[in-house]
Amino acid sequence: MGIEPEVVPFCRTIAGEGLAASQYVISNEVPDRPPGGRDRHLGRDGPKIVPVGELRSVRPWRDYEESLSESRPQSRIDVAPHLSFMALGRRCESESSLTDDVVGSWACDWCSKHGLLGILLHEQTEFRFPGENRSYFRSGLGWGVCLRPEINEYEARSTRRPWELSVDWYPCHFPQGHLSGFWQNYSEPLTGFLDYAKKLGSLFSTLQAPGSNEDSVDRSMDKLNDLAWTGTEQLVRNTATGRLESRWVAGTLLSALARMCIFDLTSSANLKNCEFGGCYNMFRARTNLQKYCSDQCQNSATKRRQRARKGGRDE
To answer: pTM for the whole thing?
Structure first.
C-alpha cells in the first residue's frame, strides 16, 4: 500500500511523537479473518479508515498547547484536536442525509492531521508476520512483543489484555510490517470512529453544562475516565532546554483526547460554541462578548446578516 513505517515509539502520543499517515482512504474491503471468532472492532464489517500514505510524526499535545496561546491571531483557526474531533461528531449529528463517502472524507481529513484513534486498541490485537519468531501486541498500553514459534502466513486476531498473558512480553516499537493485510487489520471502522466523536462530545457537553444533574454527571465522568484510562504521568527530558519535565503519556490518541477534555473541564477555559450556522467548532473565547471561533466565521456571519437585511428591503 506504499507505506514505509518508521521506527518511532507509537505509544508516546503525548510526551514524544505519534504516527499518522499522510493520507487515509475509506475502504470496504474485509480482511481475511483467522479462526477463533469475530472481534467487535477487528472483525467489524463496513467502511474502514485505512492509511495509504507515508507515515510521519505527529504531536497532538503540541497542537493542543498552540490552541491555548493568547498570542495566536484570531484569523487563524487553531482548534485543538479534541475540539475538532467533537465538532466532527456534532456535524454528523446535525446534518441529515449524509453518505459514507462524505463523512468518510471528513474522517480521513481529520486522521491525516492527527492519526487513527486507536479505538480497537482499548482491548488488544495480536499481529504475527511470516518468518518472525515473535508476536506483536497492540493495546491501549502501547506496542508489546513476545516470542512465538515461526508461522508461514500473516495472522491477526483479537486476544486478551496484556496483564492476562501467560508469557513474558516487553514494550517495543512500531512493527516493520509492510503487508497490505496488516494495514487493513490495523485500520479503524468508520462507524466506530464517528461513534466516539459523538460520544466524547456528549460526555463533554454533559460535564460542562451547569444544570446537569448529579447522576448524569457521575455517569459521564466515569465514562470519560474510562476513555482516558491508558494515560500515565512520566518523567521526560525537554530536548530544547535539557530540563526534566512531567508529561502525560497516553497509549492511544483517543485516550489523549479524553485527557484534553479533562484538562479543559478542570481549567478556567471559557469554551463556547461558534454561533455561525454551519460551523460546529468549540473555541476558547478571549472575552465574554466573543461569539465566533475565527475572523472567517465572524465575516461570514456579517455578510449573511447584510444579505438578509437587503432581502427584507427588496420585498
So the answer is: 0.73
